[in-house]
């Protein structure tokens, strides 16, 4: 090993001018058991770095994290669920509209068949009979009214007589 | 990375865990807490995997979140206990993460741990990312959200302090 090169590298290391590659060279060099006395303190530092690099988490850690990750609700599955709920909502509104339409239509059809709710009869003969019935009813009632009106007329006659009697 | 599946998560995200763990540990100095932080970061990646698809450097993003969570944790710890610098220092020294052959070496390792812990937070982070994780200046600037010159300045200062103090340790410690 070229000690001069190490000397140079170390000098540049303390100045913060070494590249990552050069720093790796230094680490490898100081990993040997024996180094010249003047570099003992530097060796301690580089060994410390090497030892620190070996600090690891234990194997149980992975299991713990993966179990937790698998436990967290999946975002994409949440989206599918949201879409499903939206569809159900739309379907529910549709169902209500269809049901409402059905009932309104039922009622409309029922009313259409009721003869007193619509003004014409399908059968002309029936219509004539019905009209005759109605006219007869009117004339009957009209006659009744005239009879009553006659009574009022008699009262008028009597009044006339009283008036002419007074003039005499 | 179109629509990250569990498989992608296992092969591309999970392997970063040790880097995240070491980074978190370098700040919070408690193994269970660092582990919690890494777990939280990974769960966040999973929950936001749709947004993270476009990201060109997922690792830097993860490291950034690790740093933010670690600093938050430190802050809340300081709020609740108002523990002094010395206490944090002690914790790091008792933390035997570096089993070593000779007791002498072990002692020196502890000194190094203490020395690095005593660096200003930003310098400590830069040293960690550069000398332990081997990140480029650009990657470090992305993780720490500072410009590249700041990265270089912090690295230079950190190494300078380390060099000076290592000589002191050596003077009355190792030899």
Task: Tell me about this structure.
The complex is a heterodimer of chains A (168) and B (175). Helices cover 78% and strands 0% of the residues of chain A. By secondary structure, chain A is mainly α. Chain A has a domain of 55 residues. The longest helix of chain A is centred in the C-terminal third of the chain and has 44 residues. The termini of chain B are far apart. By secondary structure, chain B is mostly helical. The longest helix of chain B is centred in the C-terminal third of the chain and has 27 residues. Classes of the chains: A mainly alpha (168), B mainly alpha (175). At the A-B interface, helix 2, helix 3 and helix 4 of A face helix 1, helix 2, helix 3, helix 7 and helix 8 of B.
Name a few traits of the molecule.
heterodimer; A: 168 residues; mainly alpha; B: mainly alpha; 10 helices; 78% helix
Largest interface: A-B, 33 and 46 residues
Radius of gyration of chain B: 18 Å
Q: What is the typical, i.e. mean, pLDDT of chain B?
A: 82
Strand content of chain B: under 5%
Largest β sheet strand count, sense and barrel closure of chain B = none
> How would you spell out the order of helices and strands of chain B?
HHHHHHHHHH
Concise structural overview:
The complex is a heterodimer of chains A (168) and B (175). Chain A is mostly helical.
Itemize the secondary structure elements and their pairings:
The complex is a heterodimer of chains A (168) and B (175).
Chain A: H1 3-14, H2 20-30, H3 40-52, H4 60-71, H5 75-113, H6 124-167
Helix pairs in contact in A: 1-2
Chain B: H1 6-13, H2 17-28, H3 31-47, H4 49-52, H5 58-81, H6 85-94, H7 103-117, H8 121-132, H9 137-144, H10 148-174
Helix pairs in contact in B: 2-3, 2-5, 3-5, 5-9, 6-7, 7-10, 8-10, 9-10
């Amino acid at each position: 090993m070229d000690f001069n090169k190490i000397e140079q590298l170390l000098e540049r290391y303390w100045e913060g001018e070494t590249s990552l590659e050069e720093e790796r060279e230094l680490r490898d060099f100081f990993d040997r058991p024996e180094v010249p006395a003047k570099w003992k303190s530097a060796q301690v530092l580089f060994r410390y770095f090497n030892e620190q690099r070996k600090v690891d988490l234990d194997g149980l850690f992975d299991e713990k994290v993966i179990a937790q990750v698998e436990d967290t609700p999946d975002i994409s599955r949440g989206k599918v669920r949201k879409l499903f709920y939206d569809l159900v909502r739309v379907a529910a509104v549709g169902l209500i509209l269809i049901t409402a339409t059905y009932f309104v239509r039922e009622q409309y059809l029922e009313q259409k068949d009721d003869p007193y709710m619509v003004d014409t009869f399908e059968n002309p003969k029936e219509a004539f009979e019905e009209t005759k019935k109605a006219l007869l009813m009117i004339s009957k009632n009209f006659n009744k009214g005239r009879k009553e009106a006659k009574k009022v007329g008699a009262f008028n006659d009597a009044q006339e007589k009283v008036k002419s009697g007074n003039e005499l | 990375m179109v629509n990250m599946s569990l498989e992608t998560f296992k092969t591309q995200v999970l392997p970063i865990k040790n880097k995240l763990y070491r980074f978190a540990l370098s700040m919070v100095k408690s193994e269970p807490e660092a582990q919690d932080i890494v777990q939280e970061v990974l769960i966040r990646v999973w929950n936001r995997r749709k947004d993270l698809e476009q990201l060109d450097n997922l690792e830097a993003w993860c490291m950034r979140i690790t740093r933010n969570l670690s600093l938050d944790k430190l802050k809340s710890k300081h709020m609740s206990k108002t523990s002094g610098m010395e206490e944090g220092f002690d914790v790091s020294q008792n933390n035997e993460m570096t089993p070593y052959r000779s007791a002498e070496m072990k002692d020196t390792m502890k000194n190094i741990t203490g020395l690095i812990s005593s660096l200003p937070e930003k310098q400590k982070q830069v040293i960690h990312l550069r000398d332990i994780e081997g990140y480029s200046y650009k990657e470090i600037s992305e993780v720490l959200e500072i410009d590249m010159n700041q990265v270089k300045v912090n690295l230079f200062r950190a190494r300078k302090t380390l060099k000076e103090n290592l000589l002191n340790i050596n003077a009355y410690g190792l030899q």
